[in-house]
Amino acid sequence: MAGEELIELKFRLADGTDIGPNKYNPTTSVGSLKEKILAQWPKDKENGPKTINDMKLINAGKILENNRTLAESRLLVGELPGGVITMMLLGLNQQDDSPKKSRCSCSIL
């Protein structure tokens, strides 16, 4: 796919800081993209993600799936020529690794 145009992306963290922009091949998987982001994650940020499963990559209100490529996840805002696509990146904070008890309750009125 020699003639494919690279997609320019930057990633906005929850505190408003950005990673990027960088250019990526449309055949890059979302999981691979998350690995690259993890390597670039600011070291001064507390509670950063430890694995790609600790991250959610959101664009245009949709959570991108790890097994899909950027081309398959093509977003409407990505159709702007020469524009940088900004995606929201949420790191799921892992405070501790102790197992949690889940509780469920229902109220029937």
Structure description:
By secondary structure, the chain is α+β, with helices and mostly antiparallel strands. It has one helix at residues 30-40, and strands at 7-12, 18-24, 55-59, 62-63, 85-91. Strand 3 and strand 4 form a beta hairpin. The longest helix has 11 residues, at 30-40. The model is unreliable at 94-100 (pLDDT under 50).
Core attributes:
five-stranded mixed sheet; alpha+beta; 109 residues; 5 strands
- Over the alpha carbons, how many angstroms does the gyration radius reach? 17 Å
Oligomer: single chain
Distance between the termini: 59 Å
Please state how the strands of the largest beta sheet are arranged side by side.
2-1-5-3-4
User: Mind describing the biggest β-sheet?
Assistant: 5 strands, mixed
Structural class by secondary-structure content: alpha+beta
What is the N-to-C order of secondary-structure elements (H for helix, E for strand)? EEHEEE
Please specify the SSE layout and strand pairing.
Layout: E1 7-12, E2 18-24, H1 30-40, E3 55-59, E4 62-63, E5 85-91
Parallel strand pairs: 1-5
Antiparallel strand pairs: 1-2, 3-4, 3-5
Describe what is shown at a glance.
The chain has 109 residues and is an alpha+beta fold.
